[in-house]
C-alpha cells in the first residue's frame, strides 16, 4: 500500500537567506512572548512588512506600550495558562484567521534541578519548580496544539509554525539542564510535527539563536 503522504524534510535555511516580504502582507500573525527581546523584534518585523500582529506576554506594561506604538493587538497571555493562550488565538481569529504562529516565549535563569541547598544529615531535597522547562516546552506544546487547530479554521493559507529554539537545542549546555532539555524538547516537537505536514498542512520550523544581547 502506498504511504498516505511523502515526507521530505527541507534542509536548514541559511541565516542570510532572502525572502519576499510581500508574501507576508496582510497575514495574521501570532507571537508569544512578544513584549521584549527577540519576540519584540519579531513583532516589529512582521508589522513593518504589513502583517496583522497579535501578540501575548506576561509583561502587561511593555506589551500594551508596544501594541499602542505599532498598532498591533496585545493580549495578556502566560503560555502556561491554556485559557490565556486560547484567548490569544481567538482574538487573532476574530481578525480574519491565523496564518503564522511564532512560539517564542521562553525563560532562562537559575536551574531548579541543580539548585543548591544546605545539606544536613536529615533534610530532604526541595521540590524543583521546573518553571524554565515548563514554560519553554509545555508552553510551546500548548501553542503547537492551538496552531494546528486554528490553522484548520483558516483555509487557503500557507500555515507556518515557527519555534524559537536555541543553539542549546543542539549542544551540551552545562549547569542548565532545564533549559537544555526544554530546547532539545522543542526541536523534538518540531521534528515530529514536520513529518506530518503532508497531513496537517502545518509547516514547522525552528530558529536557533545563540547569544543575542539586549
Ligand atoms: N537572547 C538569547 O541569547 C537567546 C538565545 C537563544 C534562544 N533564545 C530564546 O529566545 C526566546 C526569547 O528570549 P529573549 O532572549 O528575547 O528573552 P526576553 O526575556 O528578552 O524575552 C522573553 C519574553 O517572554 C516573556 N515571557 C516570559 N515568560 C512568559 C510566559 N510564561 N508567558 C508568556 N510570555 C512570557 C517575557 O515577559 C519577555 O517579554 C526564548 O525562547 C529564549 O529561550 C534567546
From TrEMBL:
<dbReference type="Pfam" id="PF00106">
    <property type="entry name" value="adh_short"/>
</dbReference>
<dbReference type="InterPro" id="IPR002347">
    <property type="entry name" value="SDR_fam"/>
</dbReference>
<keyword id="KW-0560">Oxidoreductase</keyword>
<comment type="similarity">
    <text>Belongs to the short-chain dehydrogenases/reductases (SDR) family.</text>
</comment>
<dbReference type="InterPro" id="IPR020904">
    <property type="entry name" value="Sc_DH/Rdtase_CS"/>
</dbReference>
<keyword id="KW-0521">NADP</keyword>
<dbReference type="InterPro" id="IPR036291">
    <property type="entry name" value="NAD(P)-bd_dom_sf"/>
</dbReference>
<protein>
    <submittedName>
        <fullName>Uncharacterized protein</fullName>
    </submittedName>
</protein>
Amino acid at each position: 500500500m502506498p504511504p498516505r503522504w511523502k515526507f521530505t524534510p527541507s534542509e536548514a535555511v541559511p541565516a542570510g537567506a532572502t525572502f519576499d516580504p510581500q508574501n507576508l502582507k496582510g497575514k495574521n500573525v501570532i507571537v508569544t512572548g512578544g513584549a521584549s527581546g527577540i519576540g519584540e523584534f519579531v513583532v516589529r518585523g512582521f508589522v513593518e512588512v504589513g502583517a496583522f500582529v497579535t501578540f501575548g506576554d506576561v509583561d502587561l506594561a511593555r506589551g500594551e506600550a508596544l501594541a499602542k506604538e505599532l498598532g498591533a493587538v496585545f493580549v495578556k497571555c502566560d503560555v502556561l495558562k491554556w485559557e490565556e493562550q486560547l484567548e490569544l488565538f481567538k482574538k487573532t481569529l476574530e481578525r480574519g484567521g491565523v496564518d503564522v504562529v511564532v512560539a517564542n516565549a521562553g525563560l532562562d535563569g537559575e536551574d531548579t534541578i541543580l539548585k543548591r541547598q544546605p545539606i544536613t544529615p536529615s533534610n530532604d531535597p526541595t521540590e524543583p519548580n521546573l518553571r524554565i522547562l515548563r514554560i519553554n516546552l509545555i508552553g510551546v506544546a500548548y501553542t503547537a496544539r492551538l496552531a494546528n487547530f486554528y490553522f484548520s479554521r483558516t483555509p487557503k493559507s500557507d500555515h507556518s509554525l515557527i519555534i524559537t529554539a536555541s543553539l542549546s537545542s543542539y549542544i551540551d549546555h552545562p549547569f542548565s539542564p532545564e533549559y537544555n532539555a526544554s530546547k532539545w524538547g522543542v526541536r523534538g516537537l518540531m521534528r515530529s510535527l514536520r513529518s506530518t505536514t503532508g497531513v496537517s498542512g502545518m509547516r514547522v520550523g525552528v530558529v536557533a539563536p545563540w547569544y543575542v544581547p539586549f
